[in-house]
Amino acid sequence: GQQVMQIPQYQHVQEGEDFTTYCNSSTTLSNIQWYKQRPGGHPVFLIQLVKSGEVKKQKRLTFQFGEAKKNSSLHITATQTTDVGTYFCSGNNDMRFGAGTRLTVKP
Amino acid sequence: NAGVTQTPKFQVLKTGQSMTLQCAQDMNHNSMYWYRQDPGMGLRLIYYSASEGTTDKGEVPNGYNVSRLNKREFSLRLESAAPSQTSVYFCASRTGGRQPQHFGDGTRLSIL
Q1: pLDDT digit string (tens) for B21-50?
Q2: A99–B42: do the CB atoms touch at under 8 Å?
């Protein structure tokens, strides 16, 4: 089965609101990777986290890796319509992906 | 640098027809993957090739076969297409286990 579970499956926000998606694992992860897929597009790699407690930022996106390396989050500040898409995580270099979190943004 | 190239981009088949989806990468990656994505769903792994000369089943291999022709190319074959195989197919590659995957643009396949 899947190593990581991602929640929520869907999130609809008003433009300007914040958004967070979470990946949770029952076991310690060596790393976690985040991808974004725009509607009609293909998944694109965003970032990889490796260290316990690691925090990385990409403009309005903040990625965190938990202290126990069992969970991770992606937070988007002040969403824009360009953030629409599905966000996937993959842990431990797993070649499998979960269902992801689909984000829709109302202008 | 083209990355991962998939052909064709679109295809319509009739039930029972056969077809091969092509994938080629120019990044000298060792590992290659085939996924399918149904509407509103996540990615499901069909087959993968960890290195040239090896192939293994993924989560949903039934009805498919693959060939790792060389380091660059990894093809997916549907021997007898079924409507349940209507989907978007993505090929991906990466240099090794710890590296991110690079995806192609996908093949949109409809089976009538």
Answers
A1: 999 999 999 999 999 999 878 899 999 999
A2: yes
The first and second tokens of residue B47, run together, are 């087959």
The answer to whether residue A33 neighbours chain B at the CB level (below 8 Å) is yes
Which distant-in-sequence residues (6+ apart) come within 8 Å of B14 by Cβ? Answer: B81, B111, B112
Above 60 in pLDDT, residue B72? yes
Per the model's pLDDT, the better-predicted residue between B98 and A36 turns out to be: A36
Whether B93 and B4 have beta carbons less than 8 Å apart is answered as yes
Contact residues, chain A, for B43 at CB < 8 Å = 43, 88, 96-97
The beta strand positions in A26-100, using DSSP E, are 32-37, 44-49, 55-58, 61-65, 71-76, 85-91
> Are B42 and A43 in contact (CB < 8 Å)?
no
Which of A21-55 are b and which e, b meaning 16 or more Cβ less than 10 Å from the residue's Cβ? bbbebeeebebbbbbbbeeeebbebbbbbeeeebe
Mean pLDDT, range A56-70, rounded to an integer: 97
